[in-house]
Write a structure and sequence with these properties.
Length: 182
């Protein structure tokens, strides 16, 4: 967000700043990002651990890059990148799934869920044991990584929307597997 603040002309800290920068981003890129998304990006203590690829791409466009990957590439070329993504065993990416594919995940102490991929990063919980999410709940998620915490967005429990929900937040997921139809 530092580059976005530089483009904006000052630090983004107040509720009016969140609204103003969201408006400036939309004016410059033609794409809408809500002021609440900006707030969650600027205030990491709000437990918003994942950001949609679309939001990252729009913010990258606002600061002059065609997309977020180009922004990261520039940081890497200048030795500024503070992290990197490694293809880990036990990774499942939503972009590699087809609607109807099923995934089983687990985390400590004894939570297990069976999920069905619906497309567009959306999942339906088919089975849940010992968890705060239940069969019938739905959420969006881009990837599942064994050994890493899982944060999902847009968790729908009945008619209640929960913006973000974390699973395995201390020790990560203990199981990530694609289920084959038998």
């Amino acid at each position: 967000m530092l580059d976005a603040e530089k483009e904006f002309g000052r630090p983004v800290k107040t509720p009016s700043d969140f609204v103003l920068i969201a408006d400036k981003i939309e004016s410059k890129t033609g794409e809408h990002i809500s002021d609440s998304t900006i707030k969650r990006l600027c205030k990491p203590n709000l437990a918003y651990k994942t950001v949609s690829e679309r939001s990252l791409n729009v913010i990258a466009q606002y600061v002059g890059y065609p997309h977020f990957d180009a922004f990261c590439q520039t940081l890497e070329e200048h030795g500024i990148l503070e992290s990197e993504f490694a293809q880990l065993p036990g990774c499942i990416f939503s972009d590699k799934l087809s609607p109807g594919d099923k995934i089983r995940i687990a985390w400590q102490p004894d939570r297990v869920c069976l999920l069905r991929y619906e497309g567009q990063h959306r999942y339906i919980v088919l089975e849940a044991a010992n968890a705060k999410i239940h069969a019938g709940d739905s959420f969006t998620c881009a990837s599942f990584v064994k050994g890493r915490p899982l944060y999902v967005d847009n968790l729908m429990q009945g008619t209640t929307l929960i913006a973000s929900y974390g699973m395995g937040t201390s020790h990560g997921l203990t199981l990530v597997e694609r289920k084959s139809e038998a």
